[in-house]
Amino acid sequence: MANVISHSLFTDFDVHLFRAGKHFKLYEKLGSHLLTLDGVEGTYFAVWAPNATAVSVIGDFNHWTKGEHPLTARWDGSGIWEGFIAGIEHGTKYKYSIQAQNGKYLEKGDPYARFWEVPPNTASIVWNADDYKWKDKKWLSKRKKELNKPKPYSVYEVHLGSWKKFDYGTRSLSYREMADDLVNYVVDMGFTHVEFMPVMEHPYFPSWGYQITGYFAPTSRFGTPQDLKYLIDAFHQADIGVILDWVPSHFPEDGHGLAYFDGTHLYEHADPRQGFHPDWKSCIYNYGRNEVRSFLISNAIFWLEQYHADGIRVDAVASMLYLDYSRDEGQWIPNQYGGNENLEAIAFLKELNETVGREFPDATMIAEESTSWSGVSRPTFAGGLGFDQKWMMGWMHDTLNYFKRDTIYRQFHQNDITFSLVYAFSENFMLPLSHDEVVHGKGSLISRMPGDRWQRFANLRAMYGLMFVHPGTKLLYMGAEFGQETEWNLERGLDWHYLDGRFHRGVRDLVRDLNQLYCSTFALYEQQFKGEGFEWIAYDDHKNSVISFLRKGVKEKDTLLIVCNFTPNTHETYHLGVPAFSKWKEILNTNHARYGGSGLVNEEELVPIQELKHGREFALPIKLSPLSVMVFQPTSTRKLKVKKQASLKKNVLAKE
After folding, report:
1. Distance separating alpha carbons of residues 66 and 89, to the nearest angstrom
2. Which of 28, 137, 316, 340 has the most CB atoms at less than 10 Å from its CB?
3. Rounded Cα gap, residues 542 and 572, in angstroms
4. Radius of gyration over every alpha carbon of the chain, rounded to an integer in angstroms
5. For residue 191, which phi and psi values (nearest 5 degrees)?
6. Rounded CA gap, 397 and 420, in Å?
7. Helix orientation angle between 225-237 and 175-189, rounded to the nearest 10 degrees
8. What are residue 124's DSSP bridge partners?
9. What is the pLDDT of residue 641?
10. What's the pLDDT score for residue 643?
11. Is residue 306 predicted with pLDDT exceeding 50?
């Protein structure tokens, strides 16, 4: 039996915090750590397996022989096994051999491993990524300086393994290759952030990263931990933020993973009514267990600290909040008050957001939450969950349902396109057109648009136009920005050849211009979470399927007029009631010829006329372009002179 030196990185206080569920940097203690001990180089190993009868380290250094390098259980009952093994170097493959109480041996990867073998191989790897030299100091300083300032937030969601493929679709880009191609593309398109679908190690590629086994390791499919840092660093140096998709809601049952870790249900609930997810056939965390909460919160902090992530998008929050999520009667256990709320998960989410807010106040926490749960993006001290933003799933569903309808029937479904404004300011909403909308037989976004080819692209452009002028931040999945026609296929990657077509290039150019407009216009982001930033002009022109409204910045001069026509009909003169600004100029029209539209636009500066319309004293005659979103900007802040103002007001009241 090889000699394992007794050593510990844990202090008594560390153990106390861990057992209390308050240790949020466990990655500094658990896992494998390269050390020099009394002049001897090697690796310290520590793993939590409280119900094991024996734990040893196995690997290519001992021919995977269990028991040859045993770890010692701490005396304090913490369940931590640890020890220092001389000669174990950077790059060594290993697992833990864990003897369960029934005598069986389990071979488990290290939950805290910083690197893993390329799947389908499953060993953990001793790895030190601390030698990477970051060059994003300017970005981090700017992030901190702009902490409480309103800012545009336009996200390009990416699956790293299928954004672009080489060698006839057989090879994904590496992290380093993406630092050139992907970074330059996102900058050119004008997005403010990129969101990576889970980059944490996962055994099954078609899970898209949502079945994680290596929570502290970037997937080795595309390179090393240093390579991922290089990619994130490249984004930061290009002034682009990076959001990481994170999955604390469930984990897979793979034998080398967290499930049944020490021969007992350690990380998951033992009762399948609480510990097994029927939708994803995966395990659910025991959020009531202190050590599990420490594990999960430590993991979130790890990615923010070690990889300089700018925020975390928390997956499937709704499945965490409700005990009866996707379960029939009798398949779930009520909480202590008889309700369906998962009190332990709620407490975990609040503590997660409070901890991140304390440690990284300039990071953004985003919830994918699909129900009407109140206060998701409200502070915990006000009774909320503490997220910074929440996906606006209702807007997404209603908008897609509206745009898939033949235009002749839209007059009967005006509410689908206006209802979101009833609750738009109840949360800090992000408008998502995500990967979930282009998979599982749903087809691509362009494939759902009605009409002939011209109308389909006009509808898609109008939908994107509405998305960018609607209150809230934005998220668009890769490929949607140029009208990918086929459903997303992670084995094939995006069909970049579509950009050879005029309509596809037009969609791409529109999205680029929409990003530029959104990011440069106070009216679209300064009050995007406040009701003061929005005002209806008219939402009830059902017959013409036309809606119009104002978007406002804090200052009156920062106002935009938005007019949307969701039919192919043209109106040479359409009157809208407008504020008493002097003149208006069209600054964007989704039907412009450069986007593949018909080119019917308002080229000249428009002058309001003194006419009572929509409860206002002035009306703006505009040319209403077909299947389009039109954006107008006042050309000055000088108000028009109003004659007979008192009588005009009386007439307005009489008409109303």
Report:
1. 19
2. 316
3. 18
4. 28
5. -70, 150
6. 10
7. 20
8. 94, 116
9. 55
10. 44
11. yes
pLDDT of residue 492: 87
Q: Catalytic site residue 315?
A: yes
* CA 456-461-466 angle, 5° bins: 125
| 368 a catalytic residue | yes
Which token pair is 585?
A: 């100029």
Of 494, 396, 474, which is closest to residue 165 (Cα–Cα)? 494
Average pLDDT value for residue range 52-75: 96
pLDDT at position 638 over 80: no
Of 195, 245, 315, 427, which residue is the catalytic one? 315
Using one digit for the tens of pLDDT, what is the confidence trace for 94-117?
999 999 999 999 999 999 999 999
Structural domains of the chain, ranges and CATH numbers in brackets:
12-125 (2.60.40.10), 157-525 (3.20.20.80), 531-655 (2.60.40.1180)
Decide if pLDDT at 618 tops 70: yes
Checking DSSP bridges between strand 364-367 and strand 311-314, what pairing results, if any?
Answer: parallel
Altogether, the residues listed in the chain come to a count of 656
> 310, 368, 558, 586: which is the annotated catalytic residue?
368
User: Is 87 in contact with 100 (CB distance < 8 Å)?
Assistant: no
Helix (H, G, I), strand (E, B) or coil at 154: strand
pLDDT score, position 654: 37
How far apart are alpha carbons 349 and 367 in whole angstroms?
10
Q: Are 330 and 272 in contact (CB under 8 A)?
A: no
